[in-house]
Amino acid sequence: MNVVLFDPFNGAAGDMVIGSLLDLGADEEAVRTAMRSVVGEPTIERVGRCGIRAVQVMTHATAQHRTLDEVLDRLAGSDAPKEALEMARKVFLRIHRAEESIHGAGAHFHEVGADDAIADVVGACTALHSLAPDGVAVLPLALGRGFSVGAHGIFPIPAPATVAILAESRLQMVPGGEERELCTPTGAALLSEFSTIRPDELGPASIRAVGYGAGSRNPAERPNVLRAMLLETEEDNRGSDQIDILETNVDDVTGEMLTYTLGRLMEEGARDATAIPVLMKKGRSGHIVRVISPPAATDHLTAVMARELGTLGIRCLPMVHRAVAERTIESVKVRFGGQEWWIDVKCGWSEGRITSIKAEYEQVARCARETGLPFREIATRAEATARRLFIEQGVLDP
To answer: Transmembrane residues, as ranges (predicted)?
Structure first.
């Protein structure tokens, strides 16, 4: 199994993502063609960053800002592979959701709607598509700190859009550090969309290639590069998974304590966490708390359970085989009260066909809060829209 592992020890931006993938072996001509079709001929050259040879990419785009529809129209007319364009569309939908969470419905893109961002996203998605890895993992992302100036005036670093994008992803971050912006919204959105595997799930692997993408700045004290590595893992686990199951019985915790604990376990890396009502000895009501844990996180999650629940014993069923269906996230547009919303739906696949559709909770909840409509109505409409779309595409049975 071939996996691209990004190491953003000094942050990430769109041009750095492209450069790292090109240095890793991505198809330069395909990337040039895709970027040229949305802006113009990019400059791609090798530069030095604190003694490290890296690939720098420059778009030479003008500072023109666009709405989401304008960005998507520009993407649709670009000369990039279909799969890369679909991925680029999802990247901009991530950015758009972040902008709306900060500025409200109908927000414009500002910096990330500029032509250079469009070229960076198309180029990065084309580069990843040309490498065709089996998965992508991202190590903790350096963000930086301080303040900067943007379209809305002075803003904190990391930028609000960057924080909102990362809050929707499973990426880990390294707060603080150098007093400047290390991770841009475009860089955060690209790595969030690319990521399919948590780094602690990789297991033993061999490094087959290393690439460095250069940032525009060249400080003397630290290499301003994004590192990417092509790994070969020992086996392909895309259709299966190894997990630990953690369980404990509790009869002296409140519903509020259970809810909080389940949330904490998910935040700390659990694949799933549930509480099952049971009748315990002497007729006492209680719960079985069950946690699905990656093996690398078992010790940590066991400690969280013991600390939050006060339990004296936690059972561990180690290295259980779990069959995993292929899953993708697709975005659909729905209209409520004259306003359009993009809502993600999680799709389960089997033998090339979609077998399940589920609207993402957080986006449905936000739409429900802002429109005043019932949660179930929004979820049902989004799933029905997705179902019609997939039937038309021939990937879902009527």
So the answer is: none
The mean pLDDT of the chain is: 88
Going by the DSSP 8-state scheme, the letter that residue 311 receives in this structure is: -
pTM: 0.66
Question: What is the token pair recorded at 213?
Answer: 């993408």
Distance from C-alpha of 75 to C-alpha of 72, rounded to nearest angstrom: 5
Cβ atoms 280, 286 nearer than 8 A: yes
CA 193 to chain centre: 4
Residues 6 or more apart whose CB falls under 8 angstroms from that of 269 comprise 198, 200, 293, 294, 297, 300, 301
Task: Give percent of the chain above pLDDT 90.
Answer: 52
- Kindly tell me if the per-residue pLDDT of 57 is higher than 80: yes
* Burial environment of residue 269 by CB neighbours within 10 A (0 to 12, 13 to 18, 19 or more): buried
Alpha-helix residue ranges (DSSP H) falling in 296-359: 298-309
30 pLDDT tier (thresholds 50, 70, 90): very high
- Go through the domains of the chain in sequence order and give each one's CATH number: 2-233 (no CATH), 240-323 (3.30.70.1380), 326-393 (3.10.20.300)
Q: What is the DSSP letter of 41?
A: P
Using CA atoms, how far residue 99 sits from 65, 73, 95, 122, 149, in Å, is: 14, 19, 6, 20, 16
3 state DSSP class of 28: helix
